[in-house]
């Protein structure tokens, strides 16, 4: 099984990074400068320079990609284009190449020929299709989980009940529209352990908190629960988050809803525990990667 996003990660990104790294080096930038511009390590730049990274020739030889690399290389070298602007331009091209019949769609269909069995009505490369939407959520969630697994010190934030990182589809209404880790994330001998790949419909508690916040107007699509500490609340607040307390001893949906109505901008929800209830913090954001970045900043 191979998702379209994996084609982007495994084939497209190494190729365009290699092309950009080579272009920038040709324009006189040092390895250190190239690393800063592309947001990668100097060792990665060295691997690109020495051909140690596999490049997909079909992607590298596409005229649109070569034109974009030339445009971005020139702008990044002179400072006329920022790394963020370059990222946006690359994202736009990815969406174009993912559309039905185009290069990335072709590579995906060649990697998974069984897709043809679903007939022409199976619009896997339609950006608005339910499958593509779910695929993007799972891909984002996998990236966020990967960031947490490799974050030194994350285990210190995992509560006794375990942690879960969840993300939902844009029109999520039930827990079946929320993806999470089956069995939750636990601290196993000092190592954050994700027992299985994320799936939809496997998170009850964190999913309900996320859905309740969304129903009451919160512009969020992902959430995580971590252990409660007043110092963590202070640190998150200092970072610009708005925190709101809720009472988990009653109906969670109603309590979270009331907290959001009192603090519409809240992206940190917390409860200080009670009889048989572990105190927890819930961090909410627009996607799983952003949450992972926030959690890493607390370590």
Automatic annotation (TrEMBL):
Pfam families: HTH_3, ThiN. The keyword Secreted does not apply. InterPro entries: Aldolase_II/adducin_N_sf (IPR036409), Cro/C1-type_HTH (IPR001387), Lambda_DNA-bd_dom_sf (IPR010982), ThiN (IPR019293). One of its GO terms (molecular function) is DNA binding. It comes from the Archaea. Keywords: Kinase, Transferase. Residues 27-48 form the HTH cro/C1-type domain. This is Phosphomethylpyrimidine kinase. It comes from Natrinema versiforme JCM 10478.
């Amino acid at each position: 099984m191979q998702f379209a996003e994996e084609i982007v990660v495994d084939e497209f990104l190494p190729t365009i990074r290699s092309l950009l790294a080579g272009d920038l080096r040709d324009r006189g930038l040092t390895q250190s400068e190239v690393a800063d511009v592309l947001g990668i390590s100097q060792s990665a730049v060295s691997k690109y320079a020495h051909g140690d990274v596999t490049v997909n020739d079909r992607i590298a030889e596409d005229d649109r990609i070569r034109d974009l690399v030339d445009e971005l290389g020139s702008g990044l070298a002179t400072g006329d284009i920022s790394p963020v602007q370059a990222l946006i331009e690359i994202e736009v091209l990815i969406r174009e190449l993912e559309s039905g019949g185009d290069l990335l769609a072709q590579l995906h269909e060649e990697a998974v020929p069984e897709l043809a069995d679903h007939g022409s009505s199976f619009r896997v490369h339609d950006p608005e299709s339910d499958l593509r939407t779910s695929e993007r959520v799972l891909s984002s969630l996998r990236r966020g989980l990967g960031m947490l697994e490799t974050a030194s010190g994350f285990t210190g934030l995992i509560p006794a009940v375990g942690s879960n990182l969840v993300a939902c589809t844009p029109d999520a209404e039930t827990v079946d529209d929320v993806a999470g880790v089956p069995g939750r994330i636990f601290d196993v001998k000092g190592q954050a352990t994700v027992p299985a790949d994320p799936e939809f419909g496997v998170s009850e508690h964190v999913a309900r908190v996320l859905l309740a916040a969304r129903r009451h107007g919160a512009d969020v699509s992902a959430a995580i629960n971590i252990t409660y500490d007043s110092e963590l609340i202070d640190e998150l607040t200092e970072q610009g988050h708005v925190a709101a307390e809720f009472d988990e001893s009653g109906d969670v949906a109603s309590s979270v809803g009331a907290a959001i109505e009192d603090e519409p901008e809240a992206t940190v929800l917390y409860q200080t525990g009670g009889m048989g209830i572990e105190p927890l913090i819930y961090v909410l954001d627009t996607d799983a990667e952003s949450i992972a970045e926030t959690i890493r900043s607390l370590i």
